[in-house]
């Protein structure tokens, strides 16, 4: 049965307008995005199949062009729309992260890092450079690695902090394994970076590990 034949209060778009986007299931959200289904399949059925095909909503959102366009019901036009939506979300969070005190509103920085790093299938190490009022100066991806590790060079981070005239910074990296717990190497590296940056009067305020939807804070966990 086509969605237009469903009771009005069961249709995803009408449900969204009435109750808000948070009330929709993942499949219903994809259905609103797709707008139409395929012969014999409603948009919700198709949304459910796409979520299963890509291993979840996150997998669908991070699918590359070739894989997305090969999926039934997507194609290049919808892939372009999806890529634009994801970039709009990233830029919106970037604006929020850059406005105000990063310590007063740590969730904005955390949300930005989660969106930026959560779907990478390799390790990435980032720095959020802050001024004396803890406002964001720049957010840079400095090092890339493999599925399980990346090489981080303290001298390069110190150099970039001095280039930005930063007074403090927040470190961040992801764990593609999906486990946010810091390793012994993560804790040792954080201490080394904090000591190296202290020599040039730059404070390390926090270190986030992003793993799937989670973002662990070293400071909140008592590791910093």
What distinguishing features does this structure have?
single chain, 224 residues, 46% helix, elongated
Protein described:
It is built from ten helices and five strands, in the order αααααααββαβαββα. The protein is 46% helix and 16% strand. β1 (124-130) and β2 form a beta hairpin. It is elongated, with a radius of gyration of 21 Å. The longest helix has 24 residues, at 75-98. The chain has helices spanning 12-19, 26-34, 43-53, 57-61, 65-70, 75-98, 106-117, 154-163, 184-198, 218-221; strands spanning 124-130, 136-144, 168-174, 203-211, 214-217. Strands 2-1-3-4-5 form a five-stranded mixed beta sheet, with helices on both faces. With 224 residues, the chain is of the alpha+beta class.
Quick structural overview:
The protein has helices at residues 12-19, 26-34, 43-53, 57-61, 65-70, 75-98, 106-117, 154-163, 184-198, 218-221, and strands at residues 124-130, 136-144, 168-174, 203-211, 214-217.
The largest β sheet comes out as: 5 strands, mixed
User: Low-confidence segments, ≥5 residues, pLDDT <50?
Assistant: none
DSSP strand content: 15-25%
Helices, by number, come to: 10
What is the multimeric organization of the chains shown?
single chain
SSE order: HHHHHHHEEHEHEEH
Task: State the secondary-structure class.
Answer: alpha+beta
Q: Looking at the structure, what is the overall shape?
A: elongated
Instruction: Tell me the number of strands.
Output: 5
- Over the alpha carbons, how many angstroms does the gyration radius reach? 21 Å
Q: Fraction of residues in helices?
A: 40-55%
Mean pLDDT: 84
| Terminal Cα span | 56 Å
Spatial order of the strands forming the largest sheet: 2-1-3-4-5
């Amino acid at each position: 049965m086509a969605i237009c034949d469903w009771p009005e209060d069961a249709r995803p778009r009408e449900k969204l307008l009435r109750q808000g986007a948070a009330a929709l299931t993942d499949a219903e959200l994809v259905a609103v995005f797709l707008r139409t289904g395929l012969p014999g399949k409603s948009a919700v059925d198709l949304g459910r199949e796409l979520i299963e095909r890509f291993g979840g909503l996150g997998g669908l959102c991070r699918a590359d062009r070739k894989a997305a366009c090969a999926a039934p019901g997507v194609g290049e036009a919808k892939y372009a729309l999806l890529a634009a939506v994801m970039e709009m979300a990233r830029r919106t969070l970037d604006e929020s992260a850059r406005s105000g005190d990063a310590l007063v509103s740590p969730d904005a920085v955390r949300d930005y890092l989660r969106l930026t790093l959560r779907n990478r299938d390799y390790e990435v190490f980032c720095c959020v450079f802050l001024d004396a009022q803890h406002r964001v100066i720049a957010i840079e991806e400095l090092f890339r690695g493999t599925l399980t590790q990346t090489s981080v060079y303290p001298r390069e981070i110190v150099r970039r902090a001095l280039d930005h005239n930063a007074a403090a910074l927040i470190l961040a990296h992801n764990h593609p394994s999906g486990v946010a717990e810091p390793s012994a190497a993560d804790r040792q590296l954080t201490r080394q970076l904090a000591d190296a940056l202290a020599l040039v009067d730059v404070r390390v305020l926090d270190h986030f590990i992003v793993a799937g939807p989670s973002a662990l804070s070293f400071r909140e966990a008592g590791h910093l």
